[in-house]
Write a structure and sequence with these properties.
By secondary structure, the protein is of the alpha+beta class. It contains six helices and six strands; from the N terminus they run H-E-E-E-H-H-E-E-H-E-H-H. The chain has a six-stranded antiparallel β-sheet with strand order 5-1-2-3-4-6.
Length: 226
């Protein structure tokens, strides 16, 4: 019995140490600024980094000379079918978590296990907005057209496409409102590459402020707080 208790104690201590090292590494690396190249091009495009307190989205204009997002993510895929939107938010994450966990109280152990280990499928969550209000969880940042093209390319490269080269919409009733839809995505979600890691990678690709590595929203937002 004593041997069993000793083994259990070692396991518990090991778990605590692993969690602490993970948290500390994320806390340090997410606040350290990733390398950025200086740009002298005019900053013409307003983008937003938005969080719901846990998960981050990239929010960009619905229509510019570079991209009309409704051609990639049709309005008719949303329950509301409205078209008078000014912005579109894009986030990436575990498909099972998105579709089966509308609130934290709905989280199942099986969903959490799949999400943490990277063995599940992923999805893009696309939400249209009529207006965006800056807050402690939403920050505006001006970028040039080259940076914006990098964001566009990153989002496109994250999608799965059908035989007609169109994003694959996920038929579900799990939408959060009337202006959002889910699409099949590439990649694996895990405790080392979360929804926020995807956002952080997009920001780095676009030469925007970002951490070296981030899995939580607070590290990303720390680079935009004034």
């Amino acid at each position: 019995m004593k041997k069993i208790l000793k083994v259990l104690l070692y396991i518990l201590i090991s778990i605590i140490v692993i969690v602490f090292v993970y948290w500390l590494s994320e806390r340090i690396l997410s606040r350290m600024s990733a390398h950025r190249e200086p740009s002298i091009l005019p900053k013409e495009v307003a983008v937003y980094i938005m969080s719901n307190g846990v998960h981050t989205d990239l929010v960009v204009p619905v229509k510019t000379s570079q991209m009309e997002w409704f051609t990639l993510f049709p309005f008719q895929n949303n329950k509301g079918k409205e078209t008078d939107y000014s912005y579109v938010g894009v986030g990436w994450g575990d498909k099972g978590f998105y579709l089966n966990t509308p609130e934290w109280k709905d989280l199942k152990a099986s969903t959490a296990f799949v999400a943490a280990t990277g063995i599940g499928e992923t999805a893009l969550h696309v939400t249209y907005h009529k207006e965006i209000t800056e807050s402690e969880l939403c920050f505006k940042y001006m970028i040039d057209t080259v940076q914006y093209q990098s964001l566009i390319d990153f989002v496109k490269s994250s999608l799965e496409y059908d035989t007609e080269n169109k994003p694959i919409v996920i038929n579900t009733s799990a939408q959060y409102g009337d202006s959002d839809a889910f699409y099949e995505a590439k990649g694996s979600y895990s405790m080392f590459y979360s929804c926020n890691t995807w956002t952080n990678e997009a920001l780095k690709k676009a030469n925007m402020p970002a951490g070296i590595w981030a899995t939580l929203d607070k590290g990303i937002l720390s680079h935009y707080k004034k």
